[in-house]
Amino acid sequence: MKTVTNIWNHPKTSAAGLLIAIVTVAGVLSQQGITLGTAGTGTVLTLVSGLASALLGLLARDPGDGSSSTGSTAKLGAWAMIALLLPLPFTAGCSAASVAQNIVNWTPALQGAVATVNSTAALLDPVDAPIFIAATVGFDAASNLLVAQAKAYLANPTASVLAQLQAAVVAFQQQVNASLLSAARITNANSQQHVLNALNAVGTVVSAILALVQSVSSKAAVAQMAADSTIKLAAVRPYLREDKAAEMVAVHYGEPVEMARMQVAQAEMSAVQAGF
Question: What is the model's pTM?
Fold first, then answer.
């Protein structure tokens, strides 16, 4: 009876706990390869976990009424932070096949972002354009290789093909990181804004693909990928636009931006912990 009373007296607290439980259970089941069927381009578990995460974020931001205590608000904020640490659809693949398809689904966005990079030089100050062109000269070849490797992995998700995909995504990630560092040499404010917008779009897609590849790679393979990443995330963090990344992820997956922010944060945290 006391349990029922507590639920009645603290509805938001109880709802937050239930949502966390749903996300946790969904994450465990996904890691075991249990999907409960498909829903659109994803799985039922992905849909349930995503909705629960989004509702938890909304609940944590709910100011409530005048009777809400500071303690309750703090608890909800803490639970929202816990949600960042739980498995989310963006980085938790159910199988090699589903992750391969997810990677391929990102390739049109990658090609579009690289096309934007190619047209950005015309928008820059004449002094800045050569710097940007030199920094991004290999983007076309890198994106074409990554797209080809992604499609090859979808057709044949074996360890040998995965190794080639791992090498391709890390190589492109390093090119993007190097180009972001070159943005420091561009002093014109308008030019730098155009440069960062274009590079962050490419970087968002490459980071998404890297997170997906990481989710189906062995610990030894991830360690090798991280070792090959000489320009670390910490070095380029000042040039990252996480709000833009969340917007791209939200549009790609057809989900709330608030949820996408959590997914981007989790992917970044996972990459840092792995040594990228």
Answer: 0.70
